[in-house]
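hey
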């Protein structure tokens, strides 16, 4: 059978994104059901009326009585005028559904109090084995609640709205009449929506939801933004950044802040203070993520919670002394000291330091010790928990080989000696059922091992003067990055169906000059380098050029990742049986031999 002409302009064939279609060009099927008044259980429909319209023009009509397979209550007959005798020759719902679903195909379903009608149709489809097409739904009752005031209409009943909009057909509790009345109500509401800057289908559906007055008032801030990857900045009247975010599609993401899905109180407050949205277009999503991090770090927007103060990280430093000790510092110095980090807080750094003290005979005091003049010993020396270098009971050479060197080896190479010592102590405590003490050691192991794995992973790429990489962008081009000492120095995207080499060469020539500083993150924040690493480690990323070998220690901290994951999983749960969850000797022994 030939396809009706009016179907050619439906949503399926016009746009990839139906939500962007203007209301004037959208095909609507305005539907109404009459029922026996029972629950939506797949039966009970007595009449269906539907009118297909677009641009104010009627395209088709669907109307039929339906045999519900049960007697109609008397009050329903009085209300609708539909009798059992009228329904006896009518087809059952399972016969009507295929034609109705075809009539709905590619259109937006409109109904007054739509959840009621949609509930009956979905239940009928489920009961009789028809897949529900899940069309977009617009509820005229919900739109009226947002668009009309109480001064205009006392309620949002269909009869009241039909009279307000001077509908040609007044509702009569018969499906087709009510559907035609709803058509006129829909057209009246669409005219009213223009004053709210609602012109597309997606905007109308969101308008019908429970958005706040602030969101509705500030919706215009999302206008005119580009559909490209990048960063968006909400700014106040004095041009101060209030909130910085990133997206693969700036316009779509910013528009979501003005929909019912956005329920965060702080964002609602931010929207009230914003006067404009600035868009920073980027070559691809990685550049957008990095720019977002840098903007947040530079401006500390009040409504951003993450990544605001990257300079507040701390480091665990093994001092460059005759008898080195651990110290928590805020900055890296270009000296001979060994550093572990970065840590997000002083507490985490001190937790890792406690793990080192449990595994190695490092002194814990903060005194400057002399190799000539002894210093009074502290309680730790008397308890045998310190080799007492203050009393010269250990030579600098022995202290260096038994305490300082193992720490340096653990953070830059193989941490097995530290991990094995801590695991041995955890196991001994668990054997004696001292689970709480074992759990404390477990938390120290986690902090130490997590920092070591992270630092070695970062150092592997930050020691390289340059890394050039590329990956397909999904539309025929290439996303290209130039990374220097772990910092994103340039980003570009080559056009589809063109060789990427000219774009890559241009990116290298115009890339930022990066001079490295000390430590494992010499030129960027750890979070920026980790975002770059995640991009580089994707299976579809290709390394184009590197200035040296990108390598990690053969027996480095990464081989304990499985142990770290098990320990973190145990710590996150409520299992107090440390022995069974963390210290299974067979698993740990296997981990130590990796």
């Amino acid at each position: 059978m030939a396809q009706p002409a009016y179907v050619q302009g439906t949503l399926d064939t016009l746009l990839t994104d139906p939500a962007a279609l203007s209301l004037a060009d959208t095909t609507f099927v305005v539907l109404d059901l009459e029922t026996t008044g029972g629950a939506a259980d797949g039966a009970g429909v007595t009449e269906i009326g539907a009118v297909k319209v677009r641009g104010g023009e009627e395209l088709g009509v669907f109307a039929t009585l339906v045999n519900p397979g049960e007697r109609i209550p008397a009050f329903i007959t009085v209300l609708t005028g539909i009798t059992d005798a009228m329904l006896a020759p009518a087809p059952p719902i399972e016969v009507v559904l295929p034609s109705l679903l075809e009539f709905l195909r590619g259109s937006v379903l409109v109904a007054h109090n739509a959840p009621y009608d949609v509930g009956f149709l979905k239940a009928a489809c489920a009961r009789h084995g028809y897949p529900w097409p899940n069309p977009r739904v617009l509820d005229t009752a919900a739109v009226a609640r947002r668009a009309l005031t109480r001064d205009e209409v006392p309620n949002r009943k269909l009869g009241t709205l039909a009279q307000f909009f001077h509908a040609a057909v007044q509702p009569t509790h018969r499906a087709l009449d009510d559907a035609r009345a709803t058509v006129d109500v829909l057209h009246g509401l669409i005219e009213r929506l223009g004053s709210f800057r609602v012109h597309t289908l997606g905007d109308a559906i969101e308008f019908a939801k429970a958005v706040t007055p602030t969101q509705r008032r500030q919706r215009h801030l999302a206008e005119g933004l580009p559909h490209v990857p990048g960063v968006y900045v909400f700014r106040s009247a004095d041009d101060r950044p209030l909130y910085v975010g990133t997206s693969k599609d700036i316009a779509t993401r910013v528009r979501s802040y003005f929909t019912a899905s956005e329920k965060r109180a702080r964002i609602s407050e931010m929207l009230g203070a914003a006067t404009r949205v600035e868009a920073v277009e980027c070559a691809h999503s990685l550049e957008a993520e990095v720019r977002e991090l840098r903007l947040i770090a530079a401006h500390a927007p009040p409504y951003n919670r993450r990544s605001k103060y990257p300079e507040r990280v701390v480091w665990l430093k093994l001092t460059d002394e005759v008898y080195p000790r651990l110290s928590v510092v805020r900055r890296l110095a270009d000296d001979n000291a060994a550093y572990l980090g970065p840590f997000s807080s002083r507490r985490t750094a001190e937790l890792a330091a406690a793990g080192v003290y449990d595994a190695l005979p490092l002194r814990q005091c903060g005194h400057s010790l002399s190799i000539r003049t002894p210093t009074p010993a502290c309680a730790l020396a008397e308890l045998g928990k310190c080799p007492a270098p203050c009393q010269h009971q250990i030579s600098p050479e022995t202290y260096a080989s038994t305490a300082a060197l193992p720490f340096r080896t653990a953070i830059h190479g193989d941490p097995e000696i530290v991990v094995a010592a801590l695991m041995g102590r955890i196991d001994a405590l668990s054997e004696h059922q001292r689970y709480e003490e074992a759990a404390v050691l477990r938390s120290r192991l986690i902090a130490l091992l997590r920092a070591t794995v992270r630092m070695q992973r970062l150092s592997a790429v930050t020691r390289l003067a340059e890394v050039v990489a590329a990956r397909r962008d999904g539309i025929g081009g290439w996303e290209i990055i130039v990374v220097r000492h772990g910092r994103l120095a340039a980003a570009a995207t080559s056009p589809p169906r063109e060789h990427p080499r000219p774009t890559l060469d241009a990116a290298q020539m115009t890339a930022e000059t990066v001079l490295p500083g000390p430590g494992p993150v010499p030129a960027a924040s750890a979070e920026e380098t980790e975002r770059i690493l995640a991009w580089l480690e994707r299976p579809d990323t290709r390394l184009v050029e590197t200035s040296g070998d990108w390598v990690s220690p053969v027996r480095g901290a990464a081989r304990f990742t499985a142990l770290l994951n098990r320990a973190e999983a145990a710590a996150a749960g409520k299992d107090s049986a440390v022995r069974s969850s963390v210290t299974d000797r067979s698993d740990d022994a296997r981990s130590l031999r990796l």
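The longest strand covers residues 45-54. Confidence is low (pLDDT under 50) at residues 1-16, 574-594.
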